[in-house]
Predict the structure.
Amino acid sequence: MGAGRAALTAELRALRQRIAKADYHYYVLDDPIMPDAEYDRLFRRLQQIEAEHPQWISADSPSQRVAGAPAAGFEPVRHHQPMRSLSNCFSEEELRDFDRRVREALGRESITYVAEPKLDGLALSLIYRRSMLSRAATRGDGETGEDVTANVRTVRSIPLRLRGEPASHPQLIEIRGEVYMPRAGFAHINRELEAAGEKPFANPRNAAAGSLRQLDPANTRRRPLAFYAYQTGAVEGGELPPTHWELLARLRDWGLPVSALARRVEGVDGCLAYYHEMLERRPRLDFDIDGVVYKLDDLAARGELGEVSRAPRWAIAHKFPAEEAVTRLLSVDWQVGRTGALTPVARLMPVFVGGANVSNATLHNADEIERKGIHVGDAVVVRRAGDVIPEVVRALPGRRPTGARRPKVPTHCPVCGAAVERPPGEAIVRCTAGLSCPAQLHASLVHFVSRKAMDIDGLGEKLLAQVIGRGLVENAADLYRLEAEQLAGLERMGEKSAANLVAAIDASKNTTLARFLYALGIRSVGETTARALAEHFGSLEALTEAAGRDLDSERDTHVKPRDRYPQLQRVADVGPTVAAEIARFFAERRNRKVIEQLLTAGVRWPAPPRGESGKLAGKTFVITGTLPNLTREQAIDLVQQHGGKVSSSVSSKTDYLLAGDTPGGKLEKAQKLGVAVIDWSGLRKLLQSDADE
Ligand code: IVH
């Protein structure tokens, strides 16, 4: 019996360790080490043993992340040390003033800072006593916060116990950081709330706050909250490293998530380079940031600086321009896209937002206008995030003027006058004229020549409008018939530039199958799907044949809709809807004719690598940073032409990280996971060495 007990407690310990490790890899490193089914099996076994032996349940058991009854409210708790806020600056000049003050106070020439993203969430204080999470509190007024321990225990990136030897942890350590909701999770929660007829959250920050303050921890648990640690507070019985940079590394060792975007920088110039890099990356991050924070790296020197008006003198937040502003909606125009979709465009009273003047913004589609109850004349919130197209987020009905009216959905194409259709259940209204509508033709040619498609240099929107206007071009294939003499007669076109343009059009004939498929502008087929189709089928013939065979399944009423298009659906990310678009595109005689004309004109691409014989066959690459002599698209083409795969994020399945200048977070992740990192010359070597074999 005793032996059975010992075996059982050993199993219990092993289960807890394996689950905690799986959680750490999943939620902190973002690199799962175990299939979900395996995880569930371990978890159920853990719950089973604990149910039979409740006396063995410990506070750090993964099963205890859901414990605790709903609270009546949150208990106030006094912070061991007050939680200060940060001073802000909005310009380079203000930043230079800050740096000057620091240098003068410390008598140093140049200052080393740690730069971090300023996360837009809620500050949180976590107390670990003897390695165990013992209390979590909100910032509150800085002196007194609210005890949210039960809820915080459900946030799976927050360790219940610090990793590593307990002897290496201070007796008590307060770790501070930000709880936030990733954008993807925010979108998901809002969809759920809307489906349940509840009010959605205005932004991820509100969603994080609302989720953290749920009275029932079971509700918090269902919300996709995440956490980044960026600071320590009280420490008892233990030493911390002398610099902030090393402190962050220590927190990482203890199993806390620390942003991979944090960086040690030198002086104001280092700070500014970081600021601009983050501003550029901001729209593509999976979480909201409203600026960056610079902190003095030397922890001992912080004490010499002290604080002003409840904010330390050793750190400053450098805020980004606001992404949202309020202005007035003057009118709504409808723009015709390349697939005929009519997009409502808001004409606005010009407003400065996201660092630029905005007078047009998208309203997405007719349903969105309806859903948001937007009226012409309304005060509206406009959002411009990085280079993402500005959008109207919502109206402020409280400020609606009398006479405001709902925008009318057109019954006819505003450009060619053809009737519009709105298939039942669809949000999109479309012009039915196809490429005989000049607006559709123009938009589809703009797409055809764009950088990620056929990449024709020097053929801009205005020029395309001219060649269409003069009847020189009726479809994409006609571009390859243009002659220098015809072009030389156009506005702002000399003989020289006309000759250059013809040469550029000619050069674009050498392409790749992926680019060609993308250029065709098949509905729902973006760059990634085009690449997947090219990779899967290898040739245009194979793809069109499969599309043709699949189309028969559409007519077969015995086949369930989701089982139709079986061959196309074998391609990564192609589901029944996208497959249907592809099959119908190739079935259309008009489209087949244009493809034929393009091929006759000389558009071509290299034959696919034979089977497994591509030089990079079976290898997965991730590309980061700026390469010296290739654009990103060219690097992708090159890897694929040699049979390699390109994926967008680093995981343990990545074989190589191809890193250029200013590589960013992917490099750190690759290093952490032990993925081989190569530069341009490394890639060349790979291609050569294989060729020698
Ligand atoms: S350090 C004394 N670092 O910004 C300095 N704060 O206005 C304590 N925040 O309440 C804060 N990202 O909620 C720090 N990387 C970061 C941050 C950050 C976001 C928030 C935090 C704090 C507020 C300060």
Observations:
- Residues 84-86, 116, 118-119, 123, 139, 178, 230-231, 293, 312, 315, 317 surround 2-(butylsulfanyl)adenosine (CB under 6 Å).
- The chain has a mean pLDDT of 90.
- The chain has 23 helices and 24 strands.
